[in-house]
Amino acid sequence: MNLQTWVAFFHSMKYTSKVMTNIIVIVHIIVCLALIFIVLLQTGKGAGIGAAFGGASQTFFGSSGATPFLAKLTAAAAILFMVTSLALTFIGHQGGASVMKGAGVQPAAPTAPAPTQPAPPGK
């Protein structure tokens, strides 16, 4: 399926239930938290010095460490995040009209300047 097919699918839906929107929002929040957690699990470039001072080595994930596994998990979470973001965008765009719809349709009528009263003498 290409992008045009997905766009046509989302635009052809006349009624999007609140339940589906809520499910996508919940999945989106879970994916956001998972993405944050996965990124925080990854070791930085300077993490090797931590093992020299008694830090734990990466034996839990094997000799190669968790880098390949966490990189794939990060990519999967990022793809799911983008899909849920696009779905929420299309669903949110369906129901409402633009805030600017109808703006500028009626030009403002020119108003006459208010008459000025002269200041009272002596003040």
Describe the 3D structure.
Its main location: membrane. It is found in: Cell membrane. Keywords: Cell membrane, Membrane, Protein transport, Translocation, Transmembrane, Transmembrane helix, Transport. The chain is mainly α and 123 residues long. It has a domain at 3-46 and 58-94. Helices cover 55% and strands 0% of the residues. The chain has 4 helices and no strands. It starts with a helix and ends in a 28-residue tail after the last helix.
Present the secondary structure layout.
Layout lengths: L2 H10 L5 H24 L6 H5 L14 H29 L28
Helix pairs in contact: 2-4
Task: Write a concise keyword list for the protein shown above.
123 residues; mainly alpha; 4 helices; 55% helix; elongated
How would you summarize this macromolecular structure in one to three sentences?
One of its GO terms (biological process) is intracellular protein transmembrane transport. 55% of the residues lie in helices and 0% in strands. The protein is mainly alpha-helical.
Q: In whole angstroms, how far apart are the ends?
A: 81 Å
Order of helices and strands: HHHH
Shape: elongated
Oligomer: single chain
User: Can you summarize the main beta sheet?
Assistant: none
Binned strand content: under 5%
Number of helices: 4
Portion of residues within helices: 55-70%
Number of strands: 0
Query: Which class do the helix and strand fractions yield?
Result: mainly alpha
- Low-confidence parts lasting 5 or more residues at pLDDT below 50? none
Radius of gyration: 29 Å
Name the average pLDDT.
75
Function: Involved in protein export. Participates in an early event of protein translocation.
Protein name: Protein-export membrane protein SecG
Biased composition (Pro residues): 110-123
Family: Belongs to the SecG family.
